[in-house]
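Q: Got a minute? One more chain.
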Amino acid sequence: MTATVAARLDRLPITRRHVMLVVIVGIGMFFDLYEVFLAGTLSTVFKTKFHVGPDELKLVLASAFVGAFVGAVLLSRLADRLGRRNAFYLTLGVYSVFSVLAAFSPNVWWLIVCRFIAGIGIGGELPLCDAYLSDVLPARVRGRLIGWAYTVGFCAVPAAGFLARGLAPREVAGIDGWRWMFVLGGLGAAICWVLRQMLPESPRWLEAVGRAEEADAVTREFEESARRAGAVLPEPVATAGGGLQPREPLSSLFQARWRRRTTMLWIFQCLQTLGYYGFGTLVPLILNQKGFDVVTSLGFSAVTFLGYPLGSLLSLPIIERIERRTLIIASALAMTVLGLVFGFSSGTAAILIAGFLYTAASNVFSNAYHVYQGELYPTRLRATGAGSAYSLSRLATAAMPFVLLPLLDSHGSGAVFVCIGAAMVLLSIDVALLGPRTTGRPLEDVAGAEAPGVGSKPAVAV
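A: Always. Here it is, folded:
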C-alpha cells in the first residue's frame, strides 16, 4: 500500500493555504446567507412598498427556497461529477446575476421569479462548501476550521438586519433602499466569484476520479506551504482506500452501507428548517404581530441577529471537544426552550434577550450539523449526499410560510414556537438513534463504517 492523498492531507499542520481557503469560502457563505435572510428581513417592507397580501408574501418568502431545492439537487450532483471548483462558479454566478435583477423588480411577480432563480445558486452553495472544506482540511481540525468559515458567513445575518434597519425605510439617490440591498448582495457575490479562482480543486476529488497526477500536484502545494512555514512533516501512513473510485449513482445513498445515515439526514433536514429558518425568516413578522412598528421590528430583528455570528464563534472551542451529534442535540433542545420564551414573551427585554440567545444557540447547532453532513459519505458521494438532504430542507423552508404564517395569524407566536419546539425534539431523537460518531475521525474511516458505532473511536492524529 502507498500513502493516499487523504493520509498526506490529514498529517498537515494548519498553514496559510488552509486559512486562505477558509476565508475565501467563508466570504462566499457571507453573500449566500445574506441572500437567504434578505426576504424575511424585508418582509414587512414588501407589505408596505408593494402592498403585498398574505398569499403573495408567502410566495415571496418561499420562492428562493423552492429554487434552492432545485439548486441543491442539481449543483451538488454536478460537484461530484465535474468538480468542486466548477460547481462553485455556477452557484455564485447564478445568484449574483439574479440578485441584481431582483433589485429592478417593477412588481412583486418579477421579484418572485428572480428570487426563485437566485435560489438555484443559493441552494448549491452551502452543501458544496461543506463538501469542499471537508475534502481539504486535516481531520483533527476539520470542525473548527469549518466553524470559522461559517463565522465569517454568518456575519451576513446581522449585516442584512442593520442594513434593512438603515436603508429599507428610505430612498438613496432616488432609489428605494431595499433595492440597494439586492444590488449590494449581487455585486458582493460577483467579487467573491473572482476570489474563488484562487481555490485549488479538491485533491481528494481529483484522486477519486482518477486524475492522480493533478491530485498529487495540489497535495504537494499544501505540503510545500507547510514546509515553508518551518514544519517538519512525518511520513504519511500507508493506507488503502485511495485512488480511483467508481461513479456513484444517486441510488447509492440507499445502499445498505449508507441507508441508515441517509434516512437520519433526510429526516433531520426536513425538521431543522422549522427551528433555524422559522425564526430567522419570520422574526420581523412575529415582532410586528406583537405590536411593534416596521422600523422598531427591523431594529429588534437586527439586534437578535447578532447572535448568529456570536453563536458561531461560541461553537469554535467546543466543536472538536464534544461529539458532533451530541452538540447538535444539546443545541436543538436549547433552541426549543428559548423559542418558547421568545414566543410567549411580551416585554421588550425578554424578547430581545430570548431572541439573541436563540440565534446564538441556533448557530452552534448550524455549525455542528454543517460539519457533520460533510463527513458522512465517501468523496465521490459527499456533495451528492449533503446536497440531496439539504435540498429537502429548502423544500421544507419553502412550505414553511404556508404553515407557520397562518398559525401566527390565527393562534399567535406562542403556537408557532410550540410547533417549532416539537420539530426540534423529534430531530434530536432522530440524530440520537441513527447518527454515527464522526468527531476527530478521518473521512475515510467514517465512510468505511457501515453503521453507527462501527469504529467510532476518534482516530489519533498523525
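A: Confidence is low (pLDDT under 50) at residues 450-462.
Q: Perfect, thanks.
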